[in-house]
Amino acid sequence: xxxxxxTLHLDFHSGLPIYTQIVNQIQxxxxxxxxxxxxxxxxxxxxASDLRVNxxxxxxxxxxxxxxxxxxxxxxxxTYITEMPPPMVSEKLRHESLAALTQRxxxxxxxxxxxxxxxxxxxxxxxxxxxxxxxxx
Length: 137
Known about the structure:
- This protein has helices spanning 18-31, 44-51, 55-67, 87-111, 116-132; strands at 40-41, 71-74, 78-81.
- By secondary structure, it is mainly alpha-helical.
């Protein structure tokens, strides 16, 4: 079980908190079997240094992943990917990310002077448009 070099791409201008980006990307890499149960992750300090972010940002991401049972930190040994967590845990993280993204969108729309009605109508229109012609990523 050697330390696995994480490949994380942070977008400092996305509005999505950095710790959330770290959580989402590690969770995605686990789900896609890029990193596997038993793989060791970098220490909080090492990852913070590599990403050039605050130590507390990475610590928060690791704490969330630990609470979700995606990782396990063993004092003096390191941080490891655990067995796959129950789907409900992953779903909870997805919903938390969506809630944060939605809150930022709403706050920015209000900051730009749009009314609640305008924001609601735009969301409905875009959802309808996406249903008719799904966006391919």
